[in-house]
TrEMBL record:
InterPro entries, A to Z: SARA-like_C
This protein's GO CC annotations: early endosome membrane
Gene3D superfamilies: 3.30.500.40, Domain of unknown function (DUF3480), N-terminal subdomain
Region annotation (Disordered) ranges: 83-104
A Pfam family it matches: SARA_C
Species this protein is from: Electrophorus electricus
Name of the protein this chain belongs to: Smad anchor for receptor activation-like C-terminal domain-containing protein
GO biological process: endosomal transport
Residues in Smad anchor for receptor activation-like C-terminal domain copies: 269-619
Gene: zfyve9b
Amino acid sequence: RLFNKRVFCVVCCDLRFRLTHLGGKEGRVCVTCHSTLINRGYLKEQYYHNCHTDINSLVVPLRTLRKEQKKVWFADSVLPRNEASSVNTSPTRRDSSQTHPPTAAQVESTHVSVRFSFLLIPKGWELKQMHWCCVDYTVEEKRTESSLLEELEQGLTEPLVFVLNANLLAMVKIVSYMNRRCWCVMSKGMHAVGQPEVVVLLQCLPEEKRFPTDIFSHFIQIYWDAQTAGKLLNHLSHSSAARGFLGGSEHAGFLYVRPTFQSLDGLPLPPQPFLFGLLVLRAELPWARAFPLRLLLRLGAEYRFYPCPLFSVRFREPLFGQIRNSIMRLLVDFRFYRYTLPVVTGMMVDLEARSTFITIPKTRHAELLKVLNRSIERILAMAACFNERADSHLICVQTADGEYQTQAISIHSQPRRVTGSCFFVFSGSLKASSGYLAKSSIVEDGLMVQVTMETMLELRRALRDMRDFTLTCGKLHQSDRQEYVHIRWQDEEPCFNKGIISPIDGKSMESITCVKTCQRLEYRATGKVIRWTEVFFLQKEKQVNGHSRDANQKRLTEQFARAFCLTLCQSLCLLKEDGMSKLGLRITLDGQKFLAGSNGQCLPEHYQDSLKQALMAVVQSASQYCQHTSLQFELIFYILEDIL
C-alpha cells in the first residue's frame, strides 16, 4: 500500500520477509520494515539458542495442593527479582553466571510472575534459582534429574510440568502403552495461538536415564511458528527438525495425526483438539511432505496397528528408500515440491466387490473446481482422505530392491467388506479401438482408470455440474466380467472439530465451520495480552447462489472482536487470576443478542454490563446491515502473558 503518497523505488523496497498476514509466505518489504523484522527475528534466534538445554536447567515437578494451586519447579536465570516485578516488558537477556542461588527463606517468599521472561530456558544453566511462575503454580523442594526419574518410575498420578515459556508448558509422564514403556510428552498452551495441542508417545530406550528434551525445543518451535507466522499444524501435517534430533542423525521430525481407531486408555491427554506426533526419518520425509497418507498406513502395517500406531520408535529402519519407479514420480515434484497430489476435503475412495465408489461432499465443490482448473486435460489425479467407514485400506510397501508392492491392512478380527484407497488417477490414454469401455486396476495403494478422451471430457463436465457419474470398465461384450466406478456427490459433511466445546455453555462444536484468524488481532494491557484466535459459524448467512459472503462476515467478526478486546483490556489480570483465560463471545444478529462466558459459565455481571454498552451498538448496526438474514457465530479469545 502507499501511505501519504510515498512511492518506494526498487532499491528501497527489494527485500523479502515471511509475513504473518500472508500465512507465513514471503512478501516484499521496505528497508526500514525489514530491519525491524530482522531485529525481532534476532530475539527468536536467541530464544531458540537458549532453549536447547540440558535437563538440569528445566525441572518442574507438579503436585496438586488444592483445586486452584499446584507445585511447579523451574529455573529462571533471565531476570533478577527486582526486574521481574517491574512493568518493563521488553525482552532481556542475562548471563547465567550472574545468577546466585537464593536461600530457603528467599525461595519461600518468592511470588514472581514469569510473564516478562522471554528466555525461560537458558543454555547450560544449573538448577539453582527457583521462582513462582504464575498463580496456578507454586514452588516445591529443589530436585535433581535422578530423583525425578525415580519418581516417574514409581508411577506418578500427575505428570511433571516443564515451563517452556510463560504461556507454554510441557507435561511429561512415563506410561505403559500397548505393552511398551513410553515417554508421554504433551503440550499445554498451543490452543492460545490457534494450534492444536501436540502429544508425543516416544518408546523408552533400554536403561534410559535422561529426559527427551529435544521434544521441548520442538514444541517451542511449533509455538513460535504458529504465533508469528500463522503456520499451523493439522492432520497429516509435518514438522522438520535439525540433524541430531532425539540423538539420531536420521530423525527428521514428526508427522501429525488425529487418533481414530487406536486405544487411548491410560494416556493423559490435553483437551481437544490435539494431534499425535509420529517420528519420521529423513528417508521418509519426501512422503511426509508429498503423500503423508501413504506413510501413515505404512507405519500401521509395520507395527500392526490400524490405521497407524500412536507411539514412535527411535533408531528404527526407514520404511521407504530412494524414490524410483513409483507412479508418484509422474504426479509429484519430489525435487522442488512445486506440485503435489491435490486433496479435496472429505473425498474418499471405497473398493468393494466389482464396484468402486468415489464420494465427494457437495460442500467441497469449490475445492474440486480448483483441482479441475489446474489439472491437464488428459490426466485427473487426486489424493483421497482416510475413510473411517472402511474396515481395511490399501498400502504400498517398498521392497529391499526398491520395487513397490500393493498390500492391505485391516482392523483386527473384522471381515473385509470395504477397502479404502489412497488416491485415484483418471487417464485419457485409452484408444477407442482397444475393445475396452474402460480399464481399471490397482496401482500401488491407489486406483488407476484408463478411459477414452471422449469419456474424460464427459467425466469433467459431470464433476463441474456436480452430477453423479458411472464408468463401466471391461471389454465391450463381456458384461459378466465388467466392473463399475461410481462417482457420487453426498450431502453429508465430513466430520471435524470432534470433542471441541464452547467455553460459554459447553455446546458441541462438532462439524461446525471454524475459521482461524490468520491476521493476528490482539491487545496488550497490564502485562497481559488478549488474543482472538478463531470464529465458529453456528448459523451462516448465504446468498441465493449458495456462496457465503465471506468478506462481509470477516469484517463483521473483526468489529465484534475489537470491541470485545477493548472492553476487557483493563480487566485481563483479574480474568486470568480467576481462571478465565479462555473466553467465548456468541453473537446472534437476527435476535440482536450476545452471550459471553468462560469455563462453561457466563461472565460475572459487572463484565456483562461493560460488554453490553460496547457491543449492543455494534449488534444493532450489524442487524440493520444484514436484514432478513440469520447469522450466528462464536468468537474465541485467550488471555496470555505478554512475553514479546
